[in-house]
Amino acid sequence: MNLKAKIRILHIDDNTHDRQLVKDVLRKEKDLFELTEADSREKFEKLLSEHDFDVILSDFNILGFDGLQVLEVVKKMKPDLPVIIVTGTGSEEIAIQAMKMGAADYVIKTVNHILGLAHTITIVLDHKRLLEDKKKTQEELIRTNASLDSIIENIPNMLFIKEAAELRYVRFNRAGEELLGYSNTELVGKNDYDFFPKEQADFFIKKDREVLKNKVLLNIPEETIQTKHKGIRVLHTRKVPVLNAKGEPEFLLGISEDITERKRTEEALITKMRELEKFNALMVGRENKMISLKHEINALCAQLNLPSRYDPPQELE
Question: Which domains does the chain have, with CATH numbers?
Answer without folding.
Answer: 7-143 (3.40.50.2300), 155-258 (3.30.450.20)
